[in-house]
Batch of 3 targets.
Target 1
Amino acid sequence: MRITDSKGREISFCDDYRNNVDPVIITTIPETGSYTLTIHDAIFRGREDFNYRIELGEIPYLEYAYPVVGKTGKKTKVNLVGVNLQQNSLIFKPSHEDRNELRAAGETNYISNPVTFFGVDKNFYLNTSPKEKAELTNGTTLFDSVRSPREIKTYPVYALKNENIVIEIMARRLGSMMDPKIKLKDAAGNILVEADDVEDAMQGLMTHHADPLIQFRAKTEGYYYAEVEDLTGNSGPDYFYMIERKENIPTFEVFVTPASLTLPKGGTGVFHLDLISKEKFIPELEFTVKGLPKGYTLSNLRSQAGSKSWDISVTAPEDAKEKQLSLEVIATAKLKGKDAGTISQTAVAADNMMQAFYYTHHIPAAGFVADLTEPAPFSLQLSAEMERHPDQSIMIQPSDSLVPIQLKIIRKEGFTEPVEIALNKKLRQLTIDPVSFLPGESEKTIYLKVNTASMKVQRKFRAPFCFVGTVKGEIEKVGKRTFQNAMYREYSPVFVLEIKQ
C-alpha cells in the first residue's frame, strides 16, 4: 500500500505492519491537495477472491496496549499507544477467560480497531509488574517485557524430583513484537531444554507461530532457571509477553469440521474431528454431543489413542422438525498414574482452509450448527445388529481378505434412480469394488477388500468409515475439463473397523 502526491512523489509506504501481513499507514499529510492510494498484491498476483477493505481518515488506531493481561471479571488499568485516541489509558474488565477484544474511543467518536486482551482465571496468581528474578510456581502467571537490547530475563523454578515442568510463553499471540526464546538451565548453568517456535493450532490465521513451550522432567529436587530473551535482540515497551507455569497433563485440542452440518429428516450426516496435542500424544477420547433432541442417534463416540482424526455420524428421526440446532461436542480423556481422573475439552467449530495449495489450517467459526432439511429421496442403513450397537467395532483378523457388511437402502416412493456406493475415504488397507443399488434392490452385502500385506505389518488399526451413496447428475464442461455433478449424496451411519495383532 502506497500514498503518492499529485506529482507522483511517495508520501508513505507499508507492506507488513508490525507482525501483521496487512499493511497500515499512519502518516501526516504535508499539504492540502490530491493524493493517490495504490494497492497491489505483494508479488503482483490477482484473482476474484483477492478481496480487501480499506478504512481511511482521521480514525482512531491502537498500535498496542500495556498490559494486555488481567483477571477475568476484575478491572485492570491499561495504557494505550496509538493515534487519534480520546485518552491514553482506560479501565478494562475482561468478561471471559482466554482472548478478549479491547477497543478505545477516538477523537471523532469512532471506535478503534481491536487488540487482544487475555483474561486469566480469577483464582490464579497474576503479577503484571514482576520484580527481577520473580519465581515461577505452579499456577503462576507473570506479564513482563524486554526493555533493553539483548536483555535476558531469568525466573527461578523450584521442582521436586521427577516433577514435570511445563512453561509456556504468549507474546505474538497477544500482539507483541517479541519473538521469544526460552531456555531451562540447572543450577550449574547447563542448558537442559530450549524452545523457540511452537505452532498453536487455535491461531489458524497466524503466519508466524513464534511463541515457545517447554516440557521437562526434573531429575533432582532443587532450583532450575528459565531464561527468556528476544531472538532478534530487540526490545521496547511493546516487546511484552506472558509466561506461565502449568502442570504437565496430557492437553489436547479438538476441532469439529465443517462448522455446519446438513442433516435430512430420516437421514444421516457425518462430521469430522481433528485431534491435536502440543505434547505429541493424543489419548483415547470419548465424545458427547450436546444439543440433540430425543430420537437422534450417534455412532462412533470413542477414538483410539494416537488418532489424529475421527468421524462421528448423526442420524435424525423421520419426524424431526426442520430447524437449526446449535450443537456442542465434548471430548473427554481418562488420565492414568498419579494424575488419574478425567480432562475434558470443548471442540472448536472451525472450517479447515487450505493455504497455497499445500497445508491446511483451522479458521474458528461462530459455532457448530446442524440444519434439518426435507427428507432425501433415499437413505442408507447398516444392519440391525450394527445399528443397535453403534460403538461396537467390527473386528478384522490379520488373515482376513474380505470383510462383509450388510447395507440397506430406503427409497422414498417414486425414486428409482441407481445409487452408486463407495467408502467415504481411501486407505491403502481397505478398498471396495464399484457397486450400485439398482432399481428394485433394497439390500446388499458390501465386501471390503483387505490389504493383508499392509495389515500384517500394522500392530493396531482402528478407524471409522461410512458408505456414501451418490446419484449422478448432469455433466459440466469447464475448458478442457469435464465434471459430473452429484444430484444426491447421502451417508450411512459411521462404523468402526479394528484389527489387533
Target 2
Amino acid sequence: MKKLENVLLLATSHNVAKTYIYKLNRLGLKPSKIIFLKWRNSSFSNEISGLTNEEFRMLDSKLKANLKSRGLFTGDLSFTTEEILEYLDWEYETRVIENINGEDLVSFLKDRMHQEYIIYCGGGILRKKILSCGKRFIHVHPGELPLVKGADCFLWSSLVHDRIGMSAFFMNEGIDTGDIIDTKNYSIPNLEIDLEKLEARVAKQLLINFVDSHYRAELLGSLFMNIPDPAYWKTTRQNPSEGKTYYFMHDALFPQALKKFSQSKMKMVS
C-alpha cells in the first residue's frame, strides 16, 4: 500500500467519503492521515426514506451491476464509513464538531496536521477561515467546470449538456471557482431502472447519493494514480465570469433530467 505522504482525508458519513476510500484502497493508495468527522447532534443519514428494505436492496443491486459493467463501482455503500475503515484496517481519528467552519476544526487542522493537502468529502460550504488555515482542499465537483457550477450539477450537467461532467479543483471562497486540476466527461448511463415510476425524491436520492459518488471517485483515483503528490499537479485558473451557476433543480424540471438516464448510450465521451 503506497502512502500519500502529504495528503489528509477529511472523511464523513457521506457516500462520497466511502467511494473515495474504496477507490484509493483498490488502487493501492492510502492517505497519510484520516480524520473522521462527526457532527454533534447530527441526524444525517444516507438511507432513502419511502422505500422498504427489500425495494432498496433490489434497486441497489441493479445500480451496482450497472456501475460494475462500466468499471465505475467502488464498493458497497450500505456499510458505514467507520465500518469500511475498520475492515480495511485503516487507522483513523474521530473528531466531533459543531460545523465544518468551526474554530475547533480550523485550529486542529492548522496546528496539529502537517499534511498540506486535504481531500474534502463534503459537510458544508467552506468559509474563508478554514480555507486560510494553510491547507489546500481538493474537491471533486459533479459538473464540468467552468460550464456547470452550483447545486444539483449531476442533474444539470445531464439535462443541459447531455453528459455527466466531473471536475477536480482546489477550493477557494467562490462557488466552484477554484483552480481546475482535471475534468472528465462521461456519457449518461442507461441505468436499466424505471426511475420514472419512483417518487421524484427517491429517484433523486438514488442518482445523487448512490450513482454520483462513484463517478467522483473515478476522477479522484485517476489523479492520485497518475501523480501521487498533489504538489506536482498542474492546474488551470478559472475566469469567474465564465460558465453558469445553477441552483437546486425545480421539481418541474427533474422528470426531464430523469429521462436522460433511460435514453442514453453507454460510452465515455472524453
Target 3
Amino acid sequence: MTDCVLCRGAEADPGLFRTEVWSDDLWRLTTATESEVAGFSYLEPRRHVPYVTDLDGPEAATLGPVLARTSAATKRAAGADVVYVYVFGEGVPHLHLHLAPHTEGDALNDAIIRGPTTSVKRPDGVTIVTSADHPPRPPEEIAQVTGRLRRLLAGQEDPSGG
C-alpha cells in the first residue's frame, strides 16, 4: 500500500525519527531517534495490516513470541523496570505496537484514562484509576458486552453479526 507511511519501511524512518534495529520476514522493530525515553520502539508487521483487529495469518501466529522477544530486549537494552505496550489505531492505520521502556521517575506513566483521574491503591497492590470526566458505564451495558464477548470467543455467535 503506497500511501501508507509505515509500508514504506526504512525509506520513511528518517522522517518518523526512528531507525530499524531488527527485522525478519514478517516484522520490523524500529527505535525512536528522538524521544523522552531512550529505547522507545515500534513493532509493526511488514505486510499492511490496518489494525490489531485485522491481524491474521502468519503475523497473528507469531505476534506473541515476537512481542515477548522484542519487549524483553527493549527492557534489557534500556535498563528499564518494565516495558509498557501501547496499541493505538487512529493515527496511522497500519498496526504498530509502541514498546515504551519505563523506569521510576521517567516521562512515562501508567495512565490510560483521559482527563483528571483519581487513583486508589488497594491493600492487594492493585491501583484503581477512575475518571472525573467519564463515569463508569452502566452495569447493564458492561454485562451485555461481556456476555457477547464470551459468546463470540466460544464460537456461539457469528462474529460478522449475521
